[in-house]
Design goal:
This protein is mainly α and 95 residues long. Helix content is 88%, strand content 0%. It contains 4 helices and no strands. The chain is elongated and about 50 Å long. The chain starts with a helix and ends with a helix.
Length: 95
C-alpha cells in the first residue's frame, strides 16, 4: 500500500508541476478526474455502490482470499487517488 500512495504522490506532483509550467485548466481536469475515477472504482470494489442484498450474497459466496484481494485493491485505488484529488483541488484554488 505504500507503493500506491508513493505512485499517487509522484503522479500528483508531476501533474502539479506540469500545470504550473503550462495550462492550469487541462491539468485540473486530469488530476481531479484521476482522483474521482480512483475513488469511484474504490467504492465499486468496496461495495459502497451496491444494495444490502448484493453485499450479503457477496459475503456468503466469496472466499477470504478473494475478499482480502478486493479490499487491498480498494485501499490501493483510494490511496492512489487521494494525492491526485488533492492536487486537483490545489490547482483549482491557484487558478
Amino acid at each position: 500500500m505504500k507503493k500506491s500512495i508513493l505512485f499517487g504522490t509522484i503522479t500528483a506532483c508531476s501533474l502539479f508541476i506540469l500545470a504550473l509550467i503550462t495550462s492550469l485548466d487541462f491539468f485540473i481536469y486530469i488530476a481531479g478526474g484521476l482522483g474521482i475515477v480512483c475513488f469511484l472504482l474504490s467504492g465499486v470494489l468496496g461495495g459502497a455502490l451496491i444494495s444490502g442484498d448484493q453485499i450479503r450474497a457477496n459475503i456468503h459466496t466469496e472466499t477470504k482470499d478473494h475478499r482480502d484481494k478486493r479490499n487491498t485493491g480498494m485501499y490501493m485505488l483510494a490511496l492512489f487517488g487521494l494525492p491526485n484529488f488533492i492536487a486537483g483541488i490545489l490547482l483549482t484554488v491557484l487558478k
